[in-house]
């Protein structure tokens, strides 16, 4: 054999071979399109959802800078900005707080910013520019509305600015204004000029200001790096390289800010990509494997005339790459469009209102193209090696069935069709295994999604958010004092009385809330002190130990909540009568720094002193950290804990100097016959208030229905495409199997088998495929479905795991119909040629 390296001839042969098998080409292109479509749509949805979440969080935080160096001097700023990793920076100076009467319940900060800080803080001026003169100011439309000032340049406004030493009262001229939602951090800001700073606060010592906690005349330098991966490490490196020692802040809105600590979160995405690649691989590999087996004589003849094994492998590789390049653009385009269409649906899964942001990152297309190429490359590799290994003499006699030692079979009833069909299945175990794996994979995936959706429990979902028929909550409290403008006392006793007078309202159950700082006692310190001694030390815990305090959330609950307590108790027992006496407290577990780690500082029988309540209480029971979720603010402080009292303990006269608690929520229990009218009346009462939000059981039910619809569209869509890949694999296997065995069937007919018997044998083969698939899915498939679906349901809120057998029952008739139709079509295609023609084709 004379080796050659004629690359042009090999390429030409590869391309001409493609023209011979249009059906195979269509199948491979379809597989590439489907694989690429799935990967692209998942990448698009993931990156777009991530971008939406980041944008929402950034607007809440007030900046898209990666991080900041706090309370830095001008000299330190000059040093830090020279560091090569700092690509862009902005400087903000804290100048004080507005003390106008209209801002009594809302914190409005006064700052001096530069152009970069304004640009990265979502401050887009409708008119005007940043202040330059000493009496110029930039305000948000929300602040202007609170002050009763028109949205216009040149308007004069009186501002009272607290600079710690005194309150400066000065008239300013509006030099610019910008639109800002009252719920965003940028709403509560006023910007003054550098001239004002020099004139009024330049004499304040930043060190003294920092020590007092007012931070007036202190500067903060925010920076942008090349990317947002591991921001904290980059900030620390800048400090280490420059020798500057200042506190830093990380913009946690960036999901990659601590990427190395959250790699476990990418496991589900990797698993989905793996399933998609496996499905595509099974189809593409099977197509090329069957193609090589079918054309093995052709490859054998090429080898006989001097084609090297390397060139034969290259022929298969070229064919796969050409088909990949044809299908790739269609898959990328369709996947991106589908991903964009599904992104708004995915955003509805968030409890926060998110602004839809669509990612067009080149990494979406690069990643999808690489994963799809990897799938094709791996799938075409083994068939290529098989074509390269076969000897020319073997190729002429090759039938695709591995030769075995002949065994004599004896039978009194002759060759039975169903036995022959069953035996035929196992002549090529590899093709059978690939086909069964592909079909079973799609069925298992569908059954997992079906089971998880079926495990979503409406009642559990509803009981998580409300205990009655309608709930009115004060969102001002839920977002914490100081972060959101509004009146925390809006849900007053007078308002509650109006709710109680609505026709049909049987009772109004309230929850009172008090946010406090609790001095550490020896029980708390006994838990936290050992944790602080681990390496590396956790700065937040160290700070708490130095302050000798943890954050505490106190809740006073009305009797209507008592029936829901026991289900969340993990230690001790809830005694309704004892609890109502006012001498007992329920404490929740504390959230530790490590994710999903909880502990309780106290146990039943312990005594706890709450200074702001002026009393000590005995611990009745310990509850889950998120106990009575519907009654709480639904936010938790690390190392802090929740404590629950009868509402009378928070509404009674408290020690002097203690602020009265806020009414967090009011839950209405309504006569079912008057539910609609009473709900509408309650909504009418709450409508004039910006702080109060009202929701009924039907509102929450519709939200869950929306979640389920989105989950169904995405989940069933994914399983449908993978099922389509499996069906294509089955069709390809059956059709090409019939074509390859046409000579065999012709020989059987020539020795007496009728066409009716041949057709019946093929149908038996198809039904056996269905039975084998059913056997696999009803054993291993059930085990996988049970394990995976139960794990997903166990880690998902609002689910009660319910194993469903319906998918396994439904697929049997569907597979039977597909098997019968495909087999019948293949037989009809085969029977078009005469017996003589089919016998000659095997020569």
Describe this structure in words.
Helix content is 51%, strand content 16%. It is an alpha+beta fold. The protein has four domains: 192 residues, no CATH class; 186 residues, no CATH class; 200 residues, no CATH class; 198 residues, no CATH class. The chain is globular. About 1% of the residues have low confidence.
Number of domains: 4
Number of helices: 28
Task: Report the mean per-residue pLDDT as an integer.
Answer: 80
Strand segment tally:
22
Shape: globular
Strand content: 15-25%
Instruction: Tell me the Rg in angstroms.
Output: 36 Å
Biggest pleated sheet: 10 strands, mixed
**In which range does the helix fraction lie?**
40-55%
Which SSEs are present, and which pair or pack?
Blueprint: H1 7-20, H2 22-61, E1 67-72, H3 74-80, E2 88-98, E3 109-113, H4 115-119, E4 125-128, E5 136-140, H5 141-147, E6 156-162, E7 167-178, E8 189-192, H6 194-200, H7 206-212, E9 218-224, H8 231-242, E10 248-250, H9 267-294, H10 296-304, H11 309-347, H12 362-389, H13 392-397, H14 417-425, H15 429-455, H16 458-465, E11 470-474, H17 475-478, H18 493-500, E12 505-519, H19 522-532, H20 539-547, E13 549-557, E14 569-572, H21 576-580, E15 584-588, E16 590-591, E17 598-599, E18 607-610, E19 615-623, E20 641-646, H22 647-651, E21 662-670, H23 675-686, E22 692-696, H24 697-740, H25 742-750, H26 755-794, H27 806-830, H28 835-841
Which structural traits does this protein have?
single chain; 843 residues; alpha+beta; 4 domains; globular
Summarize the model shown:
With 843 residues, the chain is α+β, with helices and mostly antiparallel strands.
């Amino acid at each position: 054999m004379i080796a050659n390296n004629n690359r042009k001839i090999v390429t030409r042969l590869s391309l001409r071979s493609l023209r011979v098998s249009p059906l195979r080409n269509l199948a491979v292109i379809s597989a590439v399109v489907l694989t690429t479509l799935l990967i692209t749509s998942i990448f698009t949805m993931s990156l777009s959802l991530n971008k939406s979440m980041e944008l929402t969080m950034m607007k809440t935080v007030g900046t898209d800078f990666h991080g900041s160096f706090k309370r830095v001097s001008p000299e330190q700023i000059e040093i830090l900005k020279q560091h090569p990793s700092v690509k862009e920076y902005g400087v903000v100076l804290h100048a004080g707080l507005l003390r106008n009467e209209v801002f009594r319940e809302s914190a409005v900060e006064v700052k001096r910013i530069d152009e970069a800080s304004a640009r990265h803080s979502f401050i887009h001026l409708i008119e005007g520019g940043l202040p330059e003169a000493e009496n110029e100011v930039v305000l948000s439309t929300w602040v202007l509305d609170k002050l009763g000032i028109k949205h216009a340049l040149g308007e004069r406004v009186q501002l009272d600015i607290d600079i710690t030493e005194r309150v400066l009262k000065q008239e300013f001229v509006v030099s610019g204004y910008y639109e800002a939602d009252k719920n965003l951090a940028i709403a509560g800001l006023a910007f003054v000029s550098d001239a004002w700073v020099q004139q009024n606060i330049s004499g304040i010592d930043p060190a003294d200001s920092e020590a007092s906690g007012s931070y007036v005349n202190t500067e903060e330098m925010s920076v942008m790096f090349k990317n947002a991966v591991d921001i904290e490490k980059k900030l620390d490196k800048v400090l280490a390289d420059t020798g500057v020692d200042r506190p830093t802040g990380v913009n946690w809105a960036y999901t990659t800010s601590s990427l190395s600590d959250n790699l476990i979160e990418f496991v589900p995405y990797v698993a989905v990509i793996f399933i998609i690649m496996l499905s595509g691989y099974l189809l593409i590999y099977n197509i090329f494997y069957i193609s090589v087996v079918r054309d093995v004589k052709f490859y054998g003849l090429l080898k006989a005339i001097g084609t090297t094994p390397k060139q034969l492998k290259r022929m298969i590789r070229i064919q796969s790459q050409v088909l990949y390049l044809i299908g790739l653009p269609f898959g990328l385009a369709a996947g991106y469009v589908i991903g964009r269409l599904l992104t708004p649906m995915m955003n509805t899964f968030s409890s926060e209102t998110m602004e839809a942001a669509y990612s067009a990152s080149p990494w979406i297309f690069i990643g999808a193209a690489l994963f799809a190429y990897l799938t094709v490359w791996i799938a075409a590799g083994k068939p290529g090696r098989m074509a390269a290994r076969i000897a020319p003499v073997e190729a002429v006699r090759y039938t695709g069935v591995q030769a075995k030692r002949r065994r004599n079979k004896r039978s009194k009833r002759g060759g039975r069709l169903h036995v022959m069909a069953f035996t035929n299945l196992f002549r090529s175990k590899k093709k059978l295994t690939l086909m069964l794996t592909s079909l079973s994979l799609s069925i298992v995936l569908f059954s997992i999604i079906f089971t998880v959706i079926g495990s979503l429990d409406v009642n559990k979902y509803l009981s998580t958010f409300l205990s009655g028929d309608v709930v009115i909550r004060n969102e001002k409290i839920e977002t914490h004092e100081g972060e959101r403008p509004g009146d925390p006392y809006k849900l007053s006793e007078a308002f509650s009385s109006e709710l109680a007078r609505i026709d049909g309202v049987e009772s109004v159950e309230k929850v009172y809330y008090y946010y406090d700082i609790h001095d550490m006692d020896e029980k708390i310190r006994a838990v936290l002190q050992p944790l602080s001694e681990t390496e590396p030390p956790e700065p937040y815990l160290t700070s708490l130990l130095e302050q000798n305090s943890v954050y505490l959330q106190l809740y006073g609950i009305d009797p209507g909540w008592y029936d829901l307590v026991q289900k969340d108790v993990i230690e001790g027992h809830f005694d309704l009568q004892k609890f109502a006496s006012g001498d007992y407290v329920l404490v929740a577990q504390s959230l530790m720094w490590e994710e999903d780690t909880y502990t309780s500082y106290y146990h039943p029988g312990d005594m706890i002193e709450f200074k702001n309540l002026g009393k000590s209480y005995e611990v009745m029971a310990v509850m889950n950290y998120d106990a009575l979720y519907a009654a709480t603010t639904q936010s938790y402080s690390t190392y802090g804990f929740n404590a629950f009292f009868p509402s009378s303990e928070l509404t009674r006269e408290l020690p002097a100097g203690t602020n009265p608690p806020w009414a967090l929520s009011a839950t209405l229990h309504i006569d079912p016959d008057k539910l609609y009218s009473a709900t509408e009346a309650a909504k009418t009462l709450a409508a004039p208030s910006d702080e109060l939000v009202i929701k009924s059981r039907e509102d929450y039910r519709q939200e869950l229905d929306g979640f389920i619809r989105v989950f169904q569209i995405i989940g069933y869509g994914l399983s449908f495409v993978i099922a389509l890949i499996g069906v294509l694999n089955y069709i390809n296997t059956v059709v090409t199997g019939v074509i390859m065995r046409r000579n065999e069937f012709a020989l059987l007919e020539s020795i007496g088998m009728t066409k009716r018997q041949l057709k019946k044998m093929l149908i038996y083969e198809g039904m056996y495929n269905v039975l084998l698939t059913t056997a696999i899915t009803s054993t291993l498939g059930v085990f996988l479905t049970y394990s995976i679906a139960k794990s997903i349901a166990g880690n998902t809120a609002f689910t009660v795991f319910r194993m469903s057998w319906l998918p396994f029952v439904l697929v049997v008739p569907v597979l039977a119909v597909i098997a019968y139709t495909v087999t019948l079509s293949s037989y009809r295609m085969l029977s078009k040629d005469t017996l003589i023609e089919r016998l000659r084709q095997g020569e």
